[in-house]
Amino acid sequence: MKSGLKWMFLILGTTIGAGYASGREIWEFFGFESGLAICIFTVTFIISVYVIMKISHESKTKHFFPVLEKLVGKKLAHVYDVLIVLYLFSTTIVMIAGGGATLEAFLIPYWVGIAFFAVLLILLFIGNTNGIIRLNTIIIPLLVLGLFYALFSFNISNSHTWLFDISKQYNWPAAFTFTSLNILPLIAVLSAVGKEIKDIKEAKIASIGSGLVLGSISFIYNETLIQIADLLAEYEIPLFAILRGEPFAVFIFMSVMLWLAIYTTAVSGVFGLASRFQVIIKLPYWILALVLVALMIPFTRFGFSNLVAILYPLYGLINLYLLITILMYPFIDRLKK
């Protein structure tokens, strides 16, 4: 149970990044008529995570290429290998930029915030990967509890009921693009710890636990955003529209949690990249992290909302084939055996 929860927090830390925690990613994919879509997402996410962890555990992987080979074959694995590297690199650039921009709210200059964020990012890789896992076990429970509090508080004060008409759920296909978007970084991160998964039961606990938590938050978050749909054009970060009536202390707490969500996503991105390149370049994790972050910093002027609006749906569509192979893998594997 303890090990399963450890992996569950790693999964949540990878998925609940700035796009998700801010609400921008959820609104981009879901919105009106999406209750069924979120239910389908929950089921497909649980199955997908379990399959990835099972392959990683059985193959004792240290990076994501062996998992891709199992799923899509050697030729397509090279295509997705490049795609994952590009995805992790581009999203981590935006997370670093978001980290600097968030600190501007506390009167810290943008480039000072970038430098501070980058140093913290590199320092975490000095030592072993346990530091990354411990980070998620501390931050993610606080972030999840904070989100639940903010969302429940808003809905209770507005007397909103969470019911949906099954006959009017026309946005159900969004479940698959949303799942495929979030599966790509998870392949990178979970493959890197495949050798550390001791028992398949850990995968069951982690996949079911993370799927139910994400499904619950996504549904409540989406229902909350629907109520303030007319205000969302005024806010780059929808979460701030939800918090506008909350006490100042709650606003500060959630702003800090949002910054930490950006940090955990950036950590997961650098971890996935470093684990892949370490096979080619035999250097310690912290040196690879230093090189990667140094390459990313010049590109930190790319906008956060532009990435979510353009790249996220694009990655979601590109990864649909990968999602299908993951969902079909248990059946194909059984037929082979």
Explain what the structure shows.
The chain contains 14 helices and no strands. With 337 residues, it is mostly helical. The chain has a single domain, classed as Orthogonal Bundle (Hydantoin permease). It is globular.
- What structural class is derived from the secondary structure elements? mainly alpha
Characterize the overall form: globular
Topology as a string of helices (H) and strands (E): HHHHHHHHHHHHHH
Q: Report strand %.
A: under 5%
The amount of helix comes to over 70%
Biggest pleated-sheet summary: none
CA-to-CA gap between the ends?
30 Å
Rounded to an integer, what's the Rg over CA atoms? 19 Å
The fourth-level CATH homologous superfamily is Hydantoin permease
Name a few traits of the molecule.
337 residues, mainly alpha, Hydantoin permease
Describe the secondary-structure layout.
Elements: H1 2-15, H2 18-22, H3 24-29, H4 35-59, H5 65-103, H6 110-123, H7 130-157, H8 174-192, H9 200-227, H10 238-242, H11 248-277, H12 285-296, H13 304-318, H14 320-336
Helix pairs in contact: 1-7, 1-8, 1-9, 4-8, 4-9, 4-14, 5-6, 5-8, 5-11, 6-12, 7-9, 7-11, 8-11, 8-13, 11-12
Transmembrane segments: 33-53, 79-101, 107-126, 133-152, 172-193, 205-228, 248-273, 285-304, 310-332
Protein name: Membrane protein YkvI
Organism: Metabacillus malikii
